[in-house]
Amino acid sequence: MKIETLAIRATAPPHDTLTGVVTSPIQLSTTYERQPDGSLGPYVYTRANNPNRQTLEHALAALEGGQVALAFGSGQAATMTLLQSLRPGDHVIAPHDAYYGSLLLMQDLFGVWGLDLSKVDTTDLAQVRSVVRPSTKLIWLESPSNPLLSVSDIEAVAALAHEHGAICAVDNTWATPVLQRPLELGADVVMHSTTKYFGGHSDLLGGALVLKENGDLAERLRKIQTTGGAVPSAFDCWLVARGIRTLPLRVRTAATTAQQIADFLANHPAVESVYYPGLASHPAHDLASRQMQLPGAMLSIEVKGGEKAALQLASALRLFTHATSLGGVESLIEHRRSVEGDVSLSPPGLLRISVGLEHPDDLIADLAQALGQLEP
Ligand SMILES: *Cc1c(COP(=O)(O)O)cnc(C)c1O
Description:
Blueprint: H1 3-9, H2 51-64, E1 68-72, H3 75-84, E2 91-95, H4 100-111, E3 116-120, H5 125-131, E4 136-142, H6 154-163, E5 167-171, H7 176-179, E6 189-193, E7 207-211, H8 216-228, H9 234-244, H10 247-266, E8 271-275, H11 285-291, E9 298-303, H12 306-316, E10 321-322, E11 332-335, H13 337-340, E12 350-354, H14 360-372
Parallel strand pairs: 2-3, 2-4, 4-5, 5-6, 10-11
Antiparallel strand pairs: 1-7, 6-7, 8-9, 9-12, 11-12
Bound molecules: pyridoxal-5'-phosphate.
Residues 74-76, 99, 101-102, 142, 146, 171, 173-174, 193, 195-196, 205, 207 line the site of pyridoxal-5'-phosphate.
C-alpha cells in the first residue's frame, strides 16, 4: 500500500461487530475488568496499554516500515527513553546542530548519569568516524537539522554505526515518513515529536520511537515506557491518529509551498541567505534529492541587518505567527536564537519558518510586503 492508503487504513479501529464504528472511540477507562475465571484480558491498566495507544502505535510502525512502535507523552520523553536504554559509560555521537532539547537531554540530564557525548558535524562522515570508540553505542542523527537544515547521509552513518556494533537512531520529525524513511536507509530507530506534523494542528504533545526490529531493544524500551510511565493520554493518541489520516496530503502540500517560498526568498535583495535543501545552493542538495522525496516544509533565512532586522521582519508579517514549534496548518516564523539561549548555534539574524497550508501566493505576498518595510 502507498502511504496515503496506509495513513487511512492503519488508523482504522479494529472491527467492532457491536457498533460498526468507522473511527475509534476514545477509551478513557484506566482499568479493565478481568475474565470471569480471574485471568487477565488484553488490557489491564492504561499505563501498560490502551486501545487508542495500540491503534496509534500500529499506525506509526506501518508508516515508518518498522516492526514495532512506542508512543510517548512528548518527543522529549521518546528521546529520553532511548537514552535510558543505555548504561552509564556508554558513548553517544550526536550532531552539533541537533534540536537543542535533544542536546540538553544528552548533555545536562544524562551527563550526570554518566553518558558520554561527542557532538560533531554529522554531515561529515570522517568527523563521525574520528570520534567512534569501543564504548560507542548510539549514533544519533537529525536530518534535516533544526534550525540549520543540514543534511546527513543516513545510509552511510547507519553503516558506520553497524561496523562498530552501535545503533543508529534518526530524529525524523521534520521530514516525516512521507518524505524520508530512515529504517529503509539502514537506521535502527526513528524518533518523532508527533506534536509537529503527525498531530498537525498545534493542539497536542506527543512522541514516538519506531524500531526496525521487534527484538531485545524493543523489549527494553517497552519496559521503560510502561514502567517509567511517560505515556500519552488516550485523547492525545486519538488526536495523533486523526492527524495521521491527512499527514501525506498536508506534508506534500506544505513542502511544495515551501519550495516556492524558498525560491522567492533566495532571489530577494533583502535576504542574505536561505537554508533549504531544495535549493541548488544548499551544500547537500544532491544528497537531499536522493534521500528525501521532497525537501520538506521547514526553512531558515537570514535577512540583511542581523538580529534587529530579523525581529522587525517577524513583527511585520501578518500571515506568519511569531511563535515556536512547527508542523501545524498555520505558518509560523521564529527568531531561534532568543529561544535557544547561550547554547545556540543559530546566527543572531536567523529566522526559522514552518510553512503551513495557506495559499503560496498569499504567503509570498505577505513576505514581500514585510521585507519591503526593512531599511535598505
Ligand atoms: C519539537 C522537536 C522535538 C521535541 O519534541 P517535543 O514533542 O516538543 O517534546 C525533538 N526534535 C525535533 C526536531 C523537534 O522539532
